[in-house]
């Protein structure tokens, strides 16, 4: 897998219909595309993974594996790329999907939470107030957890609406980096991600 990822990440083109004979966990990480536009963009673009039907299915299956048998009432995805994995996960679980949005997009009553994203920019996210009842078990899904600021803000939103009970059923993302924020989330919540241990340090250092 290590060699496959290294080779595929350097290739500008990829057969999006090819399925490897041995589909070990994380094989689809090689479908992701590297940043070619410079430091103002994320270091890696996972969206090509979503174009591959088997890759997307296996990614969602791997994210859900640790939660087999756990009570999950709803899936929440974080604006914007978390909507893709979140909605796909909700469909597999046959649960509803809640969009946690950047401020200013929801025309209903909301609760807001400021946060600092992975690039250091100050932002605000919102969630509607009529979808989360006390004790509801929500699986939070995003594409990536780098510094952890965005996911932590989403956790705080659902916990504020859910009352004293710990609402999140867990946190799922393609990668949860070994950053201070990532460790904070891992220490407090059940987490799932797709990066094999042999590749984790490369993802942590954006290699």
Automatic annotation (TrEMBL):
Listed GO CC annotations: cytoplasm
Organism: Onychorhynchus coronatus (Royal flycatcher)
Keywords from the named record: Cytoplasm, Glycosyltransferase, Purine salvage, Transferase
Keyword Iron: no
Matching SUPFAM superfamilies: PRTase-like
Domain Phosphoribosyltransferase: 70-163
Class of the enzyme per the UniProt entry, highest EC level: transferase
GO molecular function terms listed in the Swiss-Prot or TrEMBL record: adenine phosphoribosyltransferase activity
Record note on quaternary structure: Homodimer.
Record-level GO BP terms: purine ribonucleoside salvage
Protein name, UniProt field: adenine phosphoribosyltransferase
Biological pathway: Purine metabolism; AMP biosynthesis via salvage pathway; AMP from adenine: step 1/1
Species classification: Eukaryota, Metazoa, Chordata, Craniata, Vertebrata
One Pfam entry name: Pribosyltran
């Amino acid at each position: 897998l290590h060699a496959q990822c290294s080779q595929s990440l350097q290739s500008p083109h990829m057969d999006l219909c090819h399925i490897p004979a041995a589909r070990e966990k994380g094989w689809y990480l090689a479908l992701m595309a590297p940043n070619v536009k410079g430091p103002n963009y994320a270091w890696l673009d996972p969206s090509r993974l979503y174009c591959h039907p088997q890759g997307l299915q296996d990614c969602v299956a791997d994210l859900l594996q640790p939660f087999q048998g756990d009570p999950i009432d709803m899936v929440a995805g974080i604006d914007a790329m978390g909507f893709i994995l979140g909605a796909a996960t909700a469909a597999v679980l046959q649960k509803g999907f809640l969009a946690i949005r950047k401020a200013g997009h929801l025309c209903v009553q909301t609760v807001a939470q400021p946060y600092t994203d992975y690039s250091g920019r100050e932002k605000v996210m919102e969630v509607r107030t009529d979808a989360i009842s006390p004790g509801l078990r929500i699986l939070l899904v995003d594409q990536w957890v780098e510094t952890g600021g965005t996911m932590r803000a989403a956790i705080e939103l659902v916990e504020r609406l859910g009352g004293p009970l710990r609402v999140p059923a867990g946190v799922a993302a393609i990668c949860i980096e070994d950053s201070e924020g990532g460790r904070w989330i891992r220490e407090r919540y059940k987490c799932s991600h797709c990066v094999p241990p042999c590749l984790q340090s490369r993802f942590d250092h954006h290699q």
